[in-house]
Amino acid sequence: MTVKANLDLLSRKISESARRSGRSVSDIHLVAVTKTVSPEKVIESLQKGIQILGENRVQEALPRMDLIRSKGYTPEWHFIGKLQRNKVRQVVGRFSLIHSVDSLNLAEEISRQAEIKGTHQDILIEMNLSGETTKAGFTSGELLSQLDRINRLNYVKLRGLMTIPPRCSVPEDSRPYFRKLRSFGEEVDSRLGKICQIFSMGMSDDFEVAIEEGATHIRIGRSLFGERLN
């Protein structure tokens, strides 16, 4: 299927999921994950209405951003992959939102680099709600103990939470993790005021369930662009 056909199908599914959960489709944002996707396909997606591009790898993202800009396109860029501290300088100020802040040290480095650049950086906290030792992110207890310190950083703005549930063969199995993220967001809001405006959760296999549980941003790669090259 073409990018247009895939996007049309995704749009219908997003609308149906929003309707089932009594939500407005305008509150749900599709982040097109462009990892390993050809520039031609990325540009086609922009021509068909995609507004947010999500990048996983700094070394792949920066030249792609320059290329897309040279073609006259100005999408919103989100960094959604694992961010190493030594790459923070390259990311801060170039991406409107970093989804994957998984430690206090990383948040502090983002704030430090944002101060150097004279800007403020919007971030999401990545939550590890499954307890998987191979997965990055804060546990609920870790974040609650460090939340005030993150919120006091002068050059980052905490906008919400992100999570990746365990790989499941049935989308419904992801629902408890999405529900838990929204619930935890309410706890964060009770401590800091209403700051959790973004819930980044749901990918190609489970985004419909994520929308039903309150996702504001869904990260879609394969269902939009087809299978990855690697």
Features:
9 helices, 230 residues, alpha/beta, eight-stranded parallel beta sheet
Uncertain spans, ≥5 residues at pLDDT below 50? none
Structural class: alpha/beta
Proportion in β-strands:
15-25%
Number of helical elements:
9
Mean pLDDT: 95
Q: Enumerate the strands of the largest sheet in spatial order, edge to edge or round the barrel.
A: 7-6-5-4-3-2-1-8
Distance between the termini: 19 Å
Report on the biggest sheet.
8 strands, parallel
- What's the count of strands? 8
Question: What's the order of the H and E elements?
Answer: HEHEHEHEHEHEHEHEH
Q: Estimate the helix proportion, in percent.
A: 40-55%
What is the CA-based Rg, rounded? 17 Å
Overall shape: globular
Kindly summarize this structure in a few lines.
The protein has 230 residues and is α/β, with parallel strands linked by helices. The chain is built from nine helices and eight strands.
How would you portray this structure in words?
The chain is an alpha/beta fold and 230 residues long. It is 43% helix and 17% strand. The chain has an 8-stranded parallel beta sheet. β1 (29-33), α2 (39-47) and β2 form a beta-alpha-beta unit.
Question: Which secondary structure elements does this structure contain, and how are they paired or packed?
Answer:
Layout: H1 3-20, E1 29-33, H2 39-47, E2 52-55, H3 58-70, E3 76-79, H4 88-91, E4 97-101, H5 104-117, E5 121-127, H6 140-151, E6 156-163, H7 175-192, E7 198-200, H8 207-212, E8 217-220, H9 222-225
